[in-house]
Specification:
Layout lengths: L1 E7 L5 H8 L5 E11 L4 H4 L2 E8 L2 E9 L5 E10 L18 H13 L4 E17 L2 E15 L6 E15 L2 H15 L2 E2 L4 H10 L22 H24 L5 H21 L11 H27 L19 H6 L1 H15 L18 H24 L6 H25 L1 H34 L6 H24 L15
Antiparallel strand pairs: 1-5, 1-8, 1-9, 2-3, 2-6, 3-4, 4-5, 6-7, 7-8
Helix pairs in contact: 4-10, 6-7, 6-10, 7-8, 7-12, 8-13, 11-12, 11-14, 12-13, 13-14
């Protein structure tokens, strides 16, 4: 098992990273690897990679697979010594026998029933150095080189550059790795990457330039008894980051895919809910993490408003002979890529990934909050009380919805989202089916409030545009005429929440 952070290095910062790395004792090694899979990609589909790599004069056979956490991977290396390349046409699977990852490898290949073939290759110069920090022994590895693949097999060669820094925990506490990783990322403007060299090789070989956005999944509590506050915090944060990190990684690399931006915003909303609602369960969650998340969320929202909301508003008015209108460029709004690469945001991602990866058996590191960890019963009691209060507050909001201004209605929408996300977090503990029935009745109110918010946002953007283009007044008038009707429907949908089953009152699942 290896535990590591992987960072991508921006153009122009490589020299600074290498200069600092060389301030200690370093070792430079050329690594030339050949990767193998079945013709149908059975290993890649299982999240595994198998390679033969020449490291200097020695050969090493390695198999890797996803581990049990955000930072962990299963790995087994077989040192083959100074063998001849001609003797290493294909990996010998028996070299990994009696290891967890080796057993998984055999199961996948036996199920596939196919022979191994060479798929792609890498040629990397690695500069390594060991650093001792906060009781941890960490290896820093600067990798610069390329990935080479034929796409399609037998076709032209495709080449992708590699320029990344990996920090791997060799010994000692995880906190030392987290702190050291954050320092290097801050000093050199690095950003977290979730795409391994093997995954990049697969994309290169298949000619994939865009991957689907990652959507949210429920926390995985397993079949063990209900977790205490600290364990629940870690598992929920891990579930949030499983959506946030892959989408953020793609956007940081330059993706402008609307769905990835949308799913990252959802992931950040869920993450903010987790930080706010689960903070009292155990120490270790820093309230200061919210500000960088909010900044990035806001920048992504500005992008979404100008693209999706305005496109939707034009669809609403397509039968009303609305005049053509081009909005002026947004001022002082960072691009999605710049917002995700923001050093403050990246520092929070590193800290949260470290928090989620902590061993539940280890004592908690000191945090900004001095509260003690709640036991399992107290944790569930706290969550039930929070669900009850958010539900009751939503019903009070429904009764006065017609008298509220747009800003107050927006706060109601955000509170309703917190209620939804908190319900989704605890669903595996309190019963998935019972929670699903509640969420089914919550959804119409959320959809109605979302439509109203989109209309308010579109109107605000058109009001800004009207300062330069009088055609915008048509859209302003059209939206102003429909907002009261939309608000009435939203209030009505919110009041129906009174009939939703209060799933938090029942017994704990199991």
């Amino acid at each position: 098992m290896e535990t590591e952070f992987k960072f991508h290095i921006p153009t122009g910062r490589l020299a600074g990273v290498e200069d600092e790395l060389r301030q200690g004792v370093v070792q430079r090694t050329r690594m030339q690897a050949r990767y193998f899979d079945t013709p149908t990609g059975a290993l890649a589909a299982a999240g595994m990679a198998l390679r033969l790599r020449k490291e200097g004069r020695r050969w090493v056979q390695t198999v890797k697979a996803a581990g049990h956490g955000l930072l962990q991977r299963l790995e087994h290396n077989a040192d083959l010594g100074a063998a001849r390349a001609a003797d290493l046409r294909r990996p010998d699977l028996l070299r990994h026998r009696d290891t967890p990852v080796g057993e998984r490898l055999l199961q996948v290949l036996q199920a596939a029933g196919e022979e191994l073939v060479e798929t792609y290759a890498t040629d990397i110069w690695r500069l390594t150095r060991e650093i001792h920090h906060a009781g941890a022994r960490v290896e820093l590895a600067l990798d610069v080189g390329k990935i080479v693949a034929q796409s399609p097999p037998g076709g032209p060669l495709r080449v992708a550059p590699v320029c990344e820094l990996e920090l791997e925990l060799l010994q000692g506490p995880l906190g030392g790795l987290v702190e050291l990783s954050a320092r290097w990322a801050q000093r050199h403007g690095l950003w977290l990457g979730t795409v391994s060299k093997a995954e990049r090789g697969e994309r290169l070989m298949k000619g994939i330039s865009q991957v689907p956005a990652i959507k949210a999944e429920a926390p995985r509590f397993g079949d063990s008894p209900a977790p205490d506050g600290a364990v629940l915090q870690r598992l929920v944060i891990a579930a949030c980051l499983a959506q946030v990190l892959p989408n953020a990684s793609e956007i940081a690399e330059g993706s402008e895919d609307a769905e990835q931006i949308h799913q990252l915003r959802i992931g950040l909303r869920r993450l903010r809910t987790a930080l706010r609602e689960l903070g009292p369960l155990a120490p270790g969650l820093d309230p200061a993490w919210d500000a960088p998340i909010t900044r990035t969320f806001g920048a992504l929202g500005a992008q979404r408003d100008r693209a999706q909301v305005l496109a939707e508003s034009r669809r609403w008015m397509e039968d009303a002979d609305a005049p053509t209108l081009t909005l002026p460029a947004a001022a002082d709004v960072p691009t999605p890529t710049a917002a995700v690469r923001d050093p403050g945001f990246q520092a929070v991602l590193v800290a949260l990934a470290g928090r989620a990866a902590e061993d539940p058996a280890e004592p908690l590191a000191a945090g900004p909050a001095a509260a003690a960890t709640l036991d399992a019963d107290a944790t569930l009691a706290h969550l039930r009380e929070r669900l009850r209060r958010l539900h009751r507050r939503s019903l009070r909001d429904a009764e006065r919805f017609d008298q509220l201004d747009d800003r107050q209605r927006h706060r109601i929408r955000k509170r309703l989202k917190r209620l939804r996300y908190l319900a989704e977090f605890v669903a595996p503990l309190l019963g998935d089916s019972r929670t699903a029935r509640y969420l089914d009745q919550l959804r119409p109110a959320q959809d109605a409030l979302g439509l109203f918010n989109d209309q308010v946002t579109a109107r605000r953007l058109y009001e800004q545009a009207a300062q330069q283009d009088a055609h915008a007044w048509f859209a302003i008038g059209w939206l102003a005429a429909r907002q009261p009707r939309t608000a009435k429907k939203a209030g009505k949908a919110l009041r129906r929440l009174a009939d939703a089953p209060k799933f938090w009152k029942g017994r704990r699942k199991g």
